[in-house]
UniProtKB/TrEMBL annotation:
Keywords: Endoplasmic reticulum, Membrane, Signal, Transmembrane, Transmembrane helix. PANTHER family: CHROMATIN COMPLEXES SUBUNIT BAP18-RELATED, ER MEMBRANE PROTEIN COMPLEX SUBUNIT 10. It is a single-pass type I membrane protein. GO terms for cellular component: EMC complex. The keyword Disulfide bond does not apply. Residues 1-19 form the signal peptide. It is found in: Endoplasmic reticulum membrane. It comes from Diabrotica virgifera virgifera. Belongs to the EMC10 family. The gene is LOC114328352. It holds the Pfam family ECM10. This is ER membrane protein complex subunit 10.
Amino acid sequence: MIAFTRLVFVALIIATTSASTLEHDGSVTIRLQHSLTFQNPPVWTERGNITIVSLRLGQATVDQKPLLPEEKKLLRDLSAKNSYYQIKAIVTANDGSQKSFISTLKACMLAESELDDRLSVSIDYMGRVVGVSSVIASNSACEGAIVPLENLKQFNTVVYVRHTETGPIPDTASYVQKLEKEKEAKEKGETKDNRSFLAKYWMYIVPLLIFMAISSASNPEAQQGQ
């Protein structure tokens, strides 16, 4: 059966940074598998592939095969049992490294939406995929509607790329240099302690004062005799 291929433009959702903050543009391949039995361990079968051609421009190709008749029945059975549908995204980066992300959905929600779902791909500032999650696009809420098998033909998947916000990077190099200079100055004896007498020796003075106060309070008769 010929796989259904379509070109989609990935919607870019930027938190507070723009796509221009991505240091290096690149491509990412995502292999999609799903489990239609919800057993432990899951039995994964192929669902399709997604290629994000440009992380900066947000252009992707989605290639997913139509469901086979037996797969439609399995999904309908999961829905009738109020069970769960699982999808695994295997991400392959430019350097060949792989990461896997698993999402779990209510099978009845997927069936009632007629296989209309959304795939959210989270990218950090280096262009690395840090998360992939699947959500249902419709407002279906598992109301018990019986979905005809002919309506479960093809996944209608839209991909969203989310660029995660990066916090400020601490200037550790300057701090380390400062510590090294202070250490060298101490070793050479160049640093002077300009603190006051109390600031230098308060840890000795305070216990002495407390001891004197306790001693005075514990000997009132001796003080009266004097």
